[in-house]
Amino acid sequence: MLLGGELGLRAAGLRPGYAADQIGGWRALPAQDGPVQTREGGAFRLRTNTSGLRTAIAPGRAPGRVRVALLGDSVPFGWGVDEGATLTEATTAALAAAGRPDVDLINAAQPGYSTVQATRLLGATLPAWAPELALIFLPLHDHNRVLVSDAEHLRGASGALPRLRVALATRSRLYEGLRRLLFPLAGQPFLRADERSAEPRVPRVSAEERAEALSAAQAQAAAWGGRLLIGHLPFAAELRGQRGPREGEAEAAAWAEQNNAPLIDLRDCCSGDALLLPADPGHYSAEGHQAVGQALARALLPLLPPSTAPLSEPP
Q: Degrees (nearest 5) of the Cα angle 272, 139, 19?
C-alpha cells in the first residue's frame, strides 16, 4: 500500500517536500548585463562577472590596493537598485572621501543566502581575490524554518533521525502528501521565524551550524592572510525607529568575542522611510545604500591595513 501510494503520487506529478531552488538564490547567473524584473513590478540594472558576483574588480591582489569583500544576502547585494548605487559603491566612495581611495570593495553577496552559503562561496570563489578583510553580514534567512538545513543540503545529515528526515523530505511523495493533509502551511518551502506552525521543521542554519560556518570562514580567510569580520545591517523596522532584539545576536556576539573577530553593528546608523524601496521595504533604496555605506566606511576605517599607496604622483 505504501509503495502503491508513493508510485501513484509520483505519477501524478507531486514533487518531494524539499526543493533547494525554492529556498533562496544559490548563485546569480554569470555574465549578466541588463534589466532584472522584481516581484513588485519594478526593474533594476544588474551586471555580474564570470563568477556570478556583482563586481567589476578583477581577481588577484593589486599592488598598493586593499581589498574588502562583503558577503550576505540580497540586502548587501543591492537587490532593486541599479549598478553604481549599491552598498559596495557607496562605501568605496565614503572611504575615498575619508582618505582611503586605495580600498576596493568586492560585492560577494547573493540573494537568499544564509551564513552557511556565504561561507561556502568564501572558500570556493573568493580565494581568487584574496581580500584582506571579508565581512559577512549575518542574514535573517538563517532563522527561516525548513525541512532540510543548508548544511544538511551541502554535506548531508548527521545522525539517524536527521538522515531519515532528509531522505523523506527529498525523495518521498507520500511523505509530502501526508504533510499537506496535516499542516496548512506545508506547501511553503520555508516559514519565517515568526510564523507559527505545528509542523516540525529546522532552521536553515542552527546556532551550532552558524558557529561552525563562521569558524570555517575565519580559517579560509586566514589561509590567504585575510581577516574575517561579521556584522549586522539595519532592516526596515530599525530604519523606522523600532529597534529590538534580533534572533541570533547573542550567539553572534559570543562567537565574535571568543574568536577575536570584529563585530560591526550598523543597526543604529540611520533612519527614515526614504532609505527603503517604496514597493519593497525589505531592501534599501539608493539613498539607503548611501547612508548605510557611510556608516560602514566609518566602521571599517580603523580595521583596514595601513595604506601602501603613494600619497601623490611622482614628479
A: 125
Which residue segments constitute the domains of the chain, with CATH numbers given?
2-21+160-192 (no CATH), 31-144+205-303 (3.40.50.1110)
Write the DSSP symbol of residue 130.
-
Phi then psi for residue 171, to 5 deg, are: -125, -30
Query: Where do runs of H (alpha helix) occur along 85-142?
Result: 87-97, 115-124
pLDDT, one tens digit per residue, over 121-155 is: 999 999 999 999 999 999 999 999 999 999 999 99
The amino acid present at 23, given as its one-letter code, is: I
C-alpha torsion 137→138→140→141, nearest 10? 100
Query: 251-282 b/e with 16+ CB inside 10 Å = b?
Result: bbeebbeeeebbbbbbbebbeeeebbbeebbe
Q: Render pLDDT for 225-284 as a digit per residue (tens, 0 to 9).
A: 999 999 999 999 999 999 889 999 999 999 999 999 999 999 999 999 999 999 999 999
Which DSSP helix (H) or strand (E) runs through 202? strand 202-203
Which set of grid coordinates corresponds to residue 72?
A: 550576505
- Contact assessment for residue 105 and residue 92, using Cβ atoms and an 8 Å cutoff: yes
